[in-house]
Amino acid sequence: MYSLESTPLEVCKALAERHKLLRKKLRLSQKEMAERSGISLGSLKRFENTGKISLEALLKLAHLMGRLNDFESIFQSGDDLNEVEKLFSNK
C-alpha cells in the first residue's frame, strides 16, 4: 500500500532521530540524558534505535531539552469547541 503521508512508524523513527541529534547538540550522553530525565537508559536506547517510547518518557525527554511546549499544539481543534458542543446539546 502506498501513501504520500508518513506512517506512524516513520514518524516515530524520524522523531527519534531528531531527538538524538538534539541530544548530541546539547552534548549529553545517553546515560546522562536518562539520569537527568528520569527514564531508564534502556528506554532511551530503545527510543533512539527503534522510535518506540512511552508518551510519558517522551514528554520527560522533551521537558529536559526545553521542548515540552512543542506538544501543546497536538490534537488542537481549529474550531470553537463551545460552538461544536451546542450542536449536541438539547437546549
Automatic annotation (TrEMBL):
Pfam families xrefs: HTH_3 (PF01381)
HTH cro/C1-type domain span: 20-71
Protein name (database record): XRE family transcriptional regulator
An MF annotation (GO) of this entry: DNA binding
Superkingdom, taxonomy of origin: Bacteria
